Fold this protein.
Amino acid sequence: MQRVCFLLKVRADRLDEYRERHAAVWPEMLHALKGTGWHNYSLFLREDGLLVGYLETEDFDAARAGMEATDVNARWQAEMAPFFETLDGARPDEAMKPLTEVFHLA
Amino acid sequence: MQRVCFLLKVRADRLDEYRERHAAVWPEMLHALKGTGWHNYSLFLREDGLLVGYLETEDFDAARAGMEATDVNARWQAEMAPFFETLDGARPDEAMKPLTEVFHLA
């Protein structure tokens, strides 16, 4: 199992709405994430909009490719894109560059 | 179980040494962490030194207080303090301010 951590930046003027949307993620989106191997997946938000994602998966590349192949992900990412800063034209899910794990204690 | 995420900043000129130290954390320190309820604990490092901590624990305040009461933690934190930026006089473990979890999928 890989442990994956990535960072994104939510626009400071959209934080409340971002929180609200993520308290009510579409059931179809949750189903797709589970079905493509996204486990124990959390998003943490700092007051300034820095967003930390953490998940566990057998293979992050496969998990991303799996979501990429779903219609619901395209719809969700299109709605989420305006919430993020400086993605350089990439969708949020395309900007999820994993950090390097330097320590782990089971 | 609480899922906890915190951020710290490692000095850019100490990244290699930080990685090396965390590839060989003292067994006594690992034992103390486990014994005080730090589970599934990972540290992730971005190239610029941003450090993300993630752990699961019954009670983060209790887990921190438990480590605080150990001698090994005082020795470890004293050795780690010079690796971090702008802790304003606080030890790294005292600067672990948790972020807010805004989404979770089991």
Observations:
- The longest strand of chain B covers residues 2-9.
